């Protein structure tokens, strides 16, 4: 089922023409919402999510990781959330698979900054916010997951500077896909990105991160870079383990990092 009723006539026709063929999914395109992730998390808390793709032309309270905001302008970026129920053996590596899937469809030069940023020419092109709903003790069985994706299509305006994390790389202005693909629109990206994303997420649920590890390595933006972790530790990035953990050499010892904010140290 496809819903585009909240859109003005012209916009409705544009989105109707590009809505991806997603068997089993409900597809909704809205003109405006607070945040596509917030909306699907509201629904997930009420009942297990049936497969849904929620696209918004404009978010009034877009959210990024770690409590940050996500700023985007209508027509300048693609913002959507995918909601579904999954029962992977381990959730570790899901956001890496999402980033990899998107990068592979976006452009040969898109790189991945662990755990969930898309980079183009050393600048942030997009971000991913993965959230799950369900009780903490529900280790077994399906949980609802909401996979939020924001991609700068046009070169973003000043407001989007806030999307880039603080730190040396945070000072860099964000990138837009149009810099390497002139004339690309948010609407035409949707059918290009979403069906492969659904396939990759389903394959992750069945097989975990390991089958994706070498593809991730080919786009790893951090490999061999000097890093600073959020706890202040510094070291050298040595790639990603088969379960998706970041490997960092610290004082000659290889350390696994499962979750942290990572910034690249200035050269
Ligand atoms: O880089 C990040 O911190 C993640 C950004 C994720 C932004 C997307 S836009 C669609 C979805 N809805 C939100 O409120 N956030 C995600």
UniProtKB/TrEMBL annotation:
Originating organism: Hydrogenophaga intermedia
Q: Which PROSITE patterns match?
A: BPL_LPL_CATALYTIC (PS51733)
Name of this chain's protein: biotin--[biotin carboxyl-carrier protein] ligase
* Pfam families per record: BPL_C, BPL_LplA_LipB
Catalysed reaction equations from the record: biotin + L-lysyl-[protein] + ATP = N(6)-biotinyl-L-lysyl-[protein] + AMP + diphosphate + H(+)
Gene3D superfamilies with a match to the protein in the record: 2.30.30.100, Bira Bifunctional Protein, Domain 2
Q: Which domain of life is it from?
A: Bacteria
Q: Does the keyword Ligase apply?
A: yes
Q: Sorted alphabetically, which InterPro entries does this protein's record hold? A: aa-tRNA-synth_II/BPL/LPL, Biotin_CoA_COase_ligase, BPL_C, BPL_LPL_catalytic
- Molecular function GO terms recorded: biotin--[biotin carboxyl-carrier protein] ligase activity
* Enzyme's top EC category: ligase
Q: What are its GO cellular component terms?
A: cytoplasm
Q: Which part of the chain is the BPL/LPL catalytic domain?
A: 8-205
Instruction: Keywords in alphabetical order, please.
Output: Biotin, Ligase
EC no.?
6.3.4.15
């Amino acid at each position: 089922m496809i819903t585009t009723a909240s859109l003005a006539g012209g916009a409705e026709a544009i989105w109707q023409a590009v809505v991806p063929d997603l068997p089993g999914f409900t597809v909704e395109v809205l003109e405006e919402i607070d945040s596509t992730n917030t909306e699907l998390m509201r629904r997930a808390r009420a009942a297990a999510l049936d497969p849904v793709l929620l696209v918004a032309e404009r978010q009034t309270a877009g959210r990024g990781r770690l409590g940050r905001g996500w700023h985007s302008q209508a027509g300048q970026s693609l913002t959507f959330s995918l909601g579904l129920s999954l029962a992977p053996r381990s959730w570790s590596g899901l956001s890496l698979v999402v980033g990899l899937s998107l990068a592979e469809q976006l452009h040969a030069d898109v790189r991945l900054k662990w755990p969930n940023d898309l980079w183009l020419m050393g600048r942030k092109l997009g971000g991913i916010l993965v959230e799950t709903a369900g009780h903490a003790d529900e280790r077994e069985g399906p949980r609802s997951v909401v996979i939020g994706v924001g991609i700068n299509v046009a070169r973003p305006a000043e407001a989007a500077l806030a999307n880039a994390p603080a730190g040396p790389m945070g000072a860099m202005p964000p990138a837009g896909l149009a810099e390497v693909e002139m004339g690309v629109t948010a609407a035409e990206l949707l059918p290009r990105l979403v069906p492969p994303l659904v396939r990759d997420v389903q394959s992750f649920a069945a097989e975990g991160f390991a089958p994706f590890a070498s593809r991730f390595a080919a786009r790893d933006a951090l490999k061999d870079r000097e890093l600073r972790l959020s706890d202040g530790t510094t070291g050298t990035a040595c790639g990603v383990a088969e379960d998706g953990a970041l490997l960092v050499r610290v004082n000659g010892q290889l350390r696994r990092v499962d979750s942290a904010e990572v910034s690249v140290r200035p050269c």
